[in-house]
Amino acid sequence: MRDLEQIEKRRTFGIISHPDAGKTTLTEKLLLFGGAIQTAGAVKNNKIKKTATSDFMEIEKQRGISVATSVMAFQYRDKQINILDTPGHKDFAEDTFRTLTAVDSVILVIDCANGVEEQTKRLMEVCRMRKTPVIVFVNKMDRDGKEAFDLLDELEQTLDIHVRPLTWPIGMGDRFQGVYNIYNQSLNLFAANKTKIAAEVVAVDSLSDTILDSIIGDAPAKELREEIEIIESVYDPFDRNKYLSGDIAPVFFGSAVNNFGVRELLDTFCEISPSPIGRDTDVRRVEPDENNFSGFVFKIHANLDPKHRDRIAFLRVVSGKFERNTFYHHVRLNKKMKFANPTSFLAQDKSVIDEAYPGDVVGLYDTGNFKIGDTMSSGEIMAYKGIPSFSPEIFQELENLDPLKSKQLEKGIRQLIDEGVAQLFIQQPGNRKIVGTVGQLQFEVINYRLIHEYGANCRFVHRNFSKACWITSENAEQLANFKRAKANYLATDKDNYTVFLAETPFLLSMAEQDYPDIVFHTTSEFMLSGNK
Ligand code: G4P
Questions:
Q1: 12 C-alpha to ligand 1 centroid (Å)
Q2: Is pLDDT larger for residue 514 or for residue 20?
Q3: Quick one: DSSP state of residue 4?
Q4: What's the 177 CA to ligand 1 centre distance in angstroms?
Q5: 0.90 exceeded by the pTM?
Q6: Mutate to test the pocket of ligand 1, among 257, 259, 262, 265 (most ligand atoms within 8 A of CB)
Q7: CA dihedral sign, ordered 156, 159, 162, 163
């Protein structure tokens, strides 16, 4: 019974945004409300500034900080909240995609002036694919931005999701007076304040209450009444089940840097967001309230000290209770393992824990046993599904410059691939190693780490591919023809699946036209069905 309460009170989520929309600021304010930090400015800005040329110190700093802030846990009211950090930099997008497999819901932050941006779209595609519940926070209302109704339309059209405002802004920029809370009918007045939690909340009996006119002025009050009327007639009433199924996203307006609108967001989040949910394995669905422990690794982080090549594997507990010094089964390796120092991440402090519950993330020190996607269980042979690889966009061939160091190079690149830094495709003849990433930065990280951590001597040579697609087909003859015709553009991925490396989007669409029975997959999610 106690375990059920532990599960029920947990909320594990991620904050996603296009860089600069305010993710770091909002995270910090949530921690402030939760009492996990005392002053603003305590959360390091874990992003590589756009202006920074990608230098290694910056990358190292990023790696260091992101371990510390990978998971931030805090208590708020009766809830145990785990925020999983998602790197904002687009070159680390795949890291973010994988982290999204370990959350139960997300808060999407958008900048009211920029609306839906590139990175927002990509991240939301992943959420839509997984039907992750989403709450939208429209940030920076203290600045002039797009009209609120236009923003709602933009969200619906570009993100393919229904929205439902739960608060509504009164003016914006210099004229921003606060928000009207449609959910509980109160007026929340704005006062710019970057360091303290302060907001004046006035309860309003109904929208016709004349207190509105006296506080915000006749004209804004009239406008607010009209707008709320439109909202009530155009948008369906908020339905929690539709939110939980990922069909409707409640929308809040505020200003994170001014602590404004954050409390409503957090309170509503606690009320409506899902407690830990089950996950599918290749044999069955596993629910959190099952007795036996199970979980999966969604992220692996190399330790900062190159002399100790140990790493931290981040495991999301899905079912049962994880206990320290208890033997569990590493399914892929078919091996029993126990952990003496499993770590939890409370705000920025790491501490050893004795037990963890569904929804929690445990850091496991690892000397090379884990790969991303690995399942640990109490003995059951099953593998969690759904940590897909995404089609990379930049390809370079890894060349060994020192034949005497080929062992080091081989080991190094395999371990970095296990960490999910990049994807490796092997091309024949000659076992050529094509490394694919979503961003240029990863090549610098890989090169630097291969040299400094593994003593390898190598270089990257650009390859002219623009997309890698996994191919499947029920038409064996067509598939065989394709493989014959495109032999120079085929490679195999880490699991030995065949991948087509297309030189241009045009050539990919030509191939799709010429071989209509072949499916070209841009994520490895298709493997869930087990076909090769
Ligand atoms: P990110 O993690 O999504 O990349 O964004 P971050 O929180 O770092 O915020 C990006 C910039 O936007 C920061 O300014 C931050 O202070 C500002 N910001 C966040 N919320 C608000 C808001 O509600 N209103 C306004 N006006 N600005 C906001 P910066 O100049 O890049 O950094 P800093 O020097 O202020 O830290």
A1: 24
A2: 514
A3: H
A4: 20
A5: no
A6: 257
A7: negative
